[in-house]
Design brief:
Helices cover about 60% and strands about 10% of the residues. β3 and β4 form a beta hairpin.
Length: about 110
């Protein structure tokens, strides 16, 4: 038996807007320089990936990505400084929740 914790953030209307999926998507953008490539790595439709990012941006009130226009290697996307900061905060919160859940689980279910 193991505890399971799923961490996601909801907007003021109770709708999920950020969790592991969007976090992995953003980290993929940082690594690949492309929303399309990140979505493909996750086996996700580009339209869904774009929606997830735009929805999170609308809730947060700041851009998570910036578009890089054309050039020799083509265009792409990069994370904004605020996106990097938000990801770090989300991951710290997520990790603290996992740790707290594990501690509570051991306390209650230990023999």
């Amino acid at each position: 038996m193991q505890p399971t914790t799923r961490i996601f953030l909801r907007d003021d209307n109770g709708e999920k807007f950020f969790g592991e999926g969007p976090c992995r998507l953003l980290k993929g953008i940082a690594r690949t320089g492309s929303l399309r490539a990140s979505a493909m790595e996750m086996h996700m439709a580009y339209s869904k990936a774009s929606y997830l990012i735009r929805h999170a941006e609308a809730v947060l009130g700041f851009p998570l990505t910036e578009t890089v226009i054309g050039g020799k290697g083509g265009g792409g996307s990069i994370l904004t400084a605020r996106a990097k900061e938000f990801i770090a905060k989300y991951e710290a919160y997520r990790d603290a929740c996992y740790e707290a859940n594990e501690t509570i689980y051991r306390k209650i279910f230990s023999d």
